[in-house]
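Possible regression after last week's pipeline update?

I re-ran a chain I had predicted before the update to compare outputs. Posting the input and the new output here so someone can diff against the archived version. Not blocking, just want to make sure nothing changed silently.
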Amino acid sequence: MAAITASMVAELRAKTDAPMMECKKALTEAEGNMDRAEELLRVKLGSKAGKAASRVTAEGVVAAFVEGSTGALVEVNCETDFVSKNDSFLSFTKAVAELIAKNDPADVAALSNLPHSQDGFGPTVEDVRKGLIGKIGENMTIRRFKRYAGGGKLASYLHGTRIGVIVEFEGDDVAAKDVAMHVAAMKPVSLSSADVPATLIDKERSIATQKAAESGKPADIVAKMVEGSVQKYLKEVSLFNQAFVKNDKQTVEQMLKSANTKVKGFTLYVVGEGIEKKADDFAAEVAAQVAAAKGA
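New output (post-update):
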């Protein structure tokens, strides 16, 4: 059987918000498999175990640049929240967003080679990045970006510096801006139910199947329960089916139709989403509590 370490318990707790001992039990039952342990907690605790699934686990900022029908969204990471407020760091991220929009780099490597000078560093983006690392004393990386230049109109929204959205649309500017704000708040994973990634649907179906099986109901009823849960999930995570944040009496799709507006696509970045953050102190705290529980 795989050894269950304090750091594993800490990681699962950070992902799920589930009680520490429940996390340990789930990891033990899953023989150390993190994804399976998370599923077990979802089955046992329901939605409570999924509340922190998107909790940010690294620092940095999201920056946007839009000029006409061309725009870009970029995430640049650093080690601490303190540096994410540094003026030089913020200037760098804004400049990078503009460079992406205007130069269309193929990837981060190509972006790093673009000409750029700042704070006496240069002549490339990579040279500036390395220079700022030396100046500020903390590592920083350009993690990901998305560029738009398809001829459609663009609306952007930044919630502080940690959440950023770009929406590509046709129609009313106000409606599109409202959709960008809605995306930041409700975090849909796709435009429509049909666009939800199969891996997410499979995971949700597995969880629903396990929960329904515990009901003890006949197989045909269980099958209907599972399908109902999956359909509910699809509506909750697809933009067009979500209740509009400014008027929950209508869906986003209905709001857009009334505004004669079409959304063609969107990009949502949340700083640090999916990045594991070092948490030695918390792991030590968990280890101490686990030890105390064993001795009780």
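Follow-up from reviewer: compared with the archived run. The two ends are 24 Å apart (CA to CA). Marking as no regression found.
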